[in-house]
Amino acid sequence: MEPQNTSNLVSGVVSEVFPNQCNVILDHDTDKKLLCSYRRSQFLNKKVEWRERSPVAPGDRVEIKVLGSKDGVVENLIPRKNKIQRKAPGREGQVLHTIAANVDQVVIVSAFLDPPFSPGLIDRFLIATQQEEIVPLIVINKMDLAEDPSVTDKTPWKLYSDMGYQCFPVSAHDPVSLEILREKVRGKTSVFCGHSGVGKTSLLQELFGEKIGKIGSVNSYTGKGKHTTTVSLLLQPEPGTRFIDTPGIKEFGLFGIKPNDLIQHFPELYEVQQKRESIEGLSRYHSYLRIKQGLEDENR
Ligand SMILES: Nc1nc2c(ncn2[C@@H]2O[C@H](COP(=O)(O)OP(=O)(O)OP(=O)(O)O)[C@@H](O)[C@H]2O)c(=O)[nH]1
Ligand SMILES: [Mg+2]
Q: Which of 47, 69, 245, 262 qualifies as a FRET site for 110, CA 20 to 30 Å off?
């Protein structure tokens, strides 16, 4: 076999993934995006028990061979610093969906209302960030729908701020409320995740003044979002700042956790349990039980 000539390879970051192709933003020319093909077989370790729905994910660093002014071929996938993965829903067998790779922080977006605040998904994302040691930020959007936004002792996210997580009550319709969050995401790579309709795309558009894609609506009957964003998209609005807008998800199936180890991902429950005291009255006890039950069902 001839030694591979790597001199004509250029590096970049995957910004959008399609079947067998992905867009790559080039490191040396960030205004340039090439549509690159990739071969699944090229990257997959056949021995792994779990396979990925797609071998490349938004945020992946790749080396590509440039074929023309608009296209190329992915030759190498650089090992990931970290990743946010879930079990791919609706797939037979053991398939993983990599939501994003190589991120500095995960912005877990929820809404104060419309759709209602949902701690279940927040807890799952918190666990996934702990597994990979990624910083989580919890954003509660649509605060304009709160009757009295200054009432903080009744805030449903108080338990998270009490635990030391950074929480940001904001409104995409109120630019002043976004200032601190904008500083938090500046200079970093952040992936925005959450249920459909919570306002991920709206927030990103307001934060960076960029037209990203479609803004949806919330079904007034079901109170659910309409899955407006359908493909994850990485954008680089200014040098060093990257964000990934993701489609709203219904479920987050945790990966790589044994039911009996789950409690360690609920530090406040774990601490009490270690003292041999009852955890039943604690805020996240029911969330813990629900997730544990799900993990046990899968292992049956
Ligand atoms: N009242 C209010 N409505 C908002 C706010 N942010 C977003 N919305 C509305 O919520 C709806 C959904 O917004 P999107 O930005 O499309 O939500 P998304 O999270 O990107 O949804 P998916 O792409 O489906 O995952 C739209 O009708 C927005 O106008 C907000 O701060 N306050
Ligand atoms: Mg969206």
A: 262
